[in-house]
Amino acid sequence: MNDQTVSRKTFDEVMVPCFSPAPFVPDRGEGSRVWDTEGRDYIDFACGIAVTSLGHAHPELLRVLQEQGSKLWHIGNGYTNEPVLRLARQLETLTFADRAFFANSGAEANEAALKLARRVAFDRHGADKFEIVSFTQSFHGRTFFTVSVGGQPKYSEGFGPVPGGITHLPYNDIEAAKRAIGAQTCAVIVEPVQGEGGVIPADPAFLHALREACDAHGALLIFDEVQTGVGRTGHFYAYEDTGVTPDILTTAKALGNGFPIGAMLTTEAIAAHFKVGVHGTTYGGNPLGAALAGKVVELVSDPALLAGVRARGEAIRAKLAKINERFDMFKEVRGKGLLIGAELNARFAGRAKDFNAAAANRGVMMLIAGPDVLRFAPSLIIPEADLDEGFARFEQACNDVIGVAGSR
């Protein structure tokens, strides 16, 4: 029998090296705590990149997993299933949308949205209306189309010619958007809060200007809510707090609380352009994922839970302010709800990874958003005691990086 003992070293021996995971190996989780294979515990401020928003091993999700898992996992889209129909109705009741397409990830949801936008323009206006407008520092996925639409060239360089008809503009620049969006534009895709690009909220006036420009030129407005959606900002979807309604919305990450599922939501008139055979998926909308997502939607859409997100977000800001009083390390703290970015000041420029590694050494799992921004995306229901313990550990980590001499 082959030896099945594995460790972090095994990763370097068996995996394609496109990731550089932490030196410890997480083994199990409960709520907002994770234990590694050595039995050490961590406070989880990362949530698998804003995914496990109801924490680990949530009892109601475990119950749904067992119930649906004993009935039907997968059937394919030659058939429909009850969980996916219920999920579609739930999401449509909560949003502007009246049609849903389910996939397995945010990248696939965005791929579907971009393809749909081009198909709508082709059907309504002809082949010359195909330009997609995106924004610098945006992130929309890792398929070749979505990574090309994303505004971070480092992710598309070295793979050959990128798809044409894509324009990148400065984020939050109203005048640049007004100049660029025109008769050739078929869609504008925007994150209400740029996540990977540094946790930068959109100015509401900017989003209103995009809506007006799209309306004036017959273009579709796509909101990428893969990271901001399903309660992360304190609203079920972030667009609800902007006064702007998109034509298409994409969602994933927290939708399945760790089970891979994504969705594209849109109107009946726009959805009609995806006729039978125009687009598809094998796993998308499978009954196991849909059942889990249905329970997630039910729990997260509770107004009391969403109010708790907003309150926890303010608590984190207060904790970061106290840490900054001691260490003078942040240039700005920004974001919405429980998607918070703390930008390091010039003294610590480029050292976000150092703080992230130090936090792990102190028992905190967290994220960065570029070389200068620490990103906090804990569970939407993280207990106050775990927040307090996590930030006590994080403060120790900051001291480890900065040293006593670096504090005020």
TrEMBL record:
<dbReference type="GO" id="GO:0042802">
    <property type="term" value="F:identical protein binding"/>
</dbReference>
<dbReference type="InterPro" id="IPR015421">
    <property type="entry name" value="PyrdxlP-dep_Trfase_major"/>
</dbReference>
<dbReference type="GO" id="GO:0045303">
    <property type="term" value="F:diaminobutyrate-2-oxoglutarate transaminase activity"/>
</dbReference>
<keyword id="KW-0055">Arginine biosynthesis</keyword>
<protein>
    <recommendedName>
        <fullName>Acetylornithine aminotransferase</fullName>
        <ecNumber>2.6.1.11</ecNumber>
    </recommendedName>
</protein>
<dbReference type="GO" id="GO:0030170">
    <property type="term" value="F:pyridoxal phosphate binding"/>
</dbReference>
<feature type="binding site">
    <location>
        <begin position="224"/>
        <end position="227"/>
    </location>
    <ligand>
        <name>pyridoxal 5'-phosphate</name>
    </ligand>
</feature>
<keyword id="KW-0963">Cytoplasm</keyword>
<feature type="binding site">
    <location>
        <position position="139"/>
    </location>
    <ligand>
        <name>pyridoxal 5'-phosphate</name>
    </ligand>
</feature>
<comment type="similarity">
    <text>Belongs to the class-III pyridoxal-phosphate-dependent aminotransferase family. ArgD subfamily.</text>
</comment>
<dbReference type="InterPro" id="IPR015424">
    <property type="entry name" value="PyrdxlP-dep_Trfase"/>
</dbReference>
<dbReference type="InterPro" id="IPR005814">
    <property type="entry name" value="Aminotrans_3"/>
</dbReference>
<dbReference type="InterPro" id="IPR017652">
    <property type="entry name" value="Ac/SucOrn_transaminase_bac"/>
</dbReference>
<feature type="binding site">
    <location>
        <position position="142"/>
    </location>
    <ligand>
        <name>N(2)-acetyl-L-ornithine</name>
    </ligand>
</feature>
<keyword id="KW-0032">Aminotransferase</keyword>
<keyword id="KW-0808">Transferase</keyword>
<feature type="binding site">
    <location>
        <position position="281"/>
    </location>
    <ligand>
        <name>N(2)-acetyl-L-ornithine</name>
    </ligand>
</feature>
<dbReference type="InterPro" id="IPR049704">
    <property type="entry name" value="Aminotrans_3_PPA_site"/>
</dbReference>
<feature type="modified residue" description="N6-(pyridoxal phosphate)lysine">
    <location>
        <position position="253"/>
    </location>
</feature>
<comment type="subunit">
    <text>Homodimer.</text>
</comment>
<dbReference type="InterPro" id="IPR050103">
    <property type="entry name" value="Class-III_PLP-dep_AT"/>
</dbReference>
<keyword id="KW-0663">Pyridoxal phosphate</keyword>
<dbReference type="InterPro" id="IPR004636">
    <property type="entry name" value="AcOrn/SuccOrn_fam"/>
</dbReference>
<dbReference type="GO" id="GO:0006526">
    <property type="term" value="P:L-arginine biosynthetic process"/>
</dbReference>
<dbReference type="InterPro" id="IPR015422">
    <property type="entry name" value="PyrdxlP-dep_Trfase_small"/>
</dbReference>
<feature type="binding site">
    <location>
        <begin position="106"/>
        <end position="107"/>
    </location>
    <ligand>
        <name>pyridoxal 5'-phosphate</name>
    </ligand>
</feature>
<feature type="binding site">
    <location>
        <position position="282"/>
    </location>
    <ligand>
        <name>pyridoxal 5'-phosphate</name>
    </ligand>
</feature>
<dbReference type="GO" id="GO:0005737">
    <property type="term" value="C:cytoplasm"/>
</dbReference>
<dbReference type="GO" id="GO:0003992">
    <property type="term" value="F:N2-acetyl-L-ornithine:2-oxoglutarate 5-aminotransferase activity"/>
</dbReference>
<comment type="pathway">
    <text>Amino-acid biosynthesis; L-arginine biosynthesis; N(2)-acetyl-L-ornithine from L-glutamate: step 4/4.</text>
</comment>
<comment type="pathway">
    <text>Amine and polyamine biosynthesis; ectoine biosynthesis; L-ectoine from L-aspartate 4-semialdehyde: step 1/3.</text>
</comment>
<dbReference type="Pfam" id="PF00202">
    <property type="entry name" value="Aminotran_3"/>
</dbReference>
<keyword id="KW-0028">Amino-acid biosynthesis</keyword>
